[in-house]
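Sharing a chain and its predicted structure for anyone who wants a worked example. Both blocks are below, sequence first, tokens second.
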Amino acid sequence: MAVIANVALTNTFDTWRVRTNDTLARLNQFTVSNSAIYANTVTANVALNALGTATVTGLFTASGRATVGTNLTVSGNTTLGAANKTITTTGLIDHTGRAAISTNLAVTGNTSTNKLVVTSSVTGTAANATFNKTTISSSLVSSGNASFSGTTTDNSNALSQTLSDGATISWDVSSGRVATVTLGGSRTMAAPTNLKVGTYILKVIQDGVGSHTLTWNSVFKWTAGAAPPLSTAAASVDIFSFFSDGTNLYGSFLPDMQ
């Protein structure tokens, strides 16, 4: 607000008029009534602390810190957070609409969700987590108790994939528990990544030349410790099935499938 106390009695009427107009212009920008605050432009450092219920019906942009003592109701589209920023909540979040999580959701308390779609991962630590109608396309990790109700789809390890041929063949099982690889030469099978307890299937195909071998990483376990030999004919197909305890894969073998 314009300072008017320094206007001397000797100043002219026009000086008073100019100062009064400046003051009224500022009051027009920021006006307080008995029940509401109207702000067209606020250029000073302002902290907005809502001790009761704050209702925002338009656009609310806070580049600094906003503290809400009880309830904050937002009726429009709301974006929380930015790149390399952290949103921390210590109370109750009651969400009745759609929540889209594109990276990680960390849950440290008791959590109940309904129609939760996660495109990366859900991590529940030392907590009881209840999920209803949940689709997970990457991974679910819970060190507490996780229970599922309704229709739950876990695509993290149910997909099939084709592995890239190379001197060392890599298998990220989070992209598919069922995998196919065509050998273009004698290869080494690396230890699969993102293993969980469960079953896995690997289809190995000889290329048009054939007679290629496959050396297995030590996490692959075989009867009597001996890996079975591959079928050698060109375009021959061998099927390997594995049970994993989360660390090792215990294999069985179906040779020369035709």
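Comments welcome. The mean pLDDT is 77.
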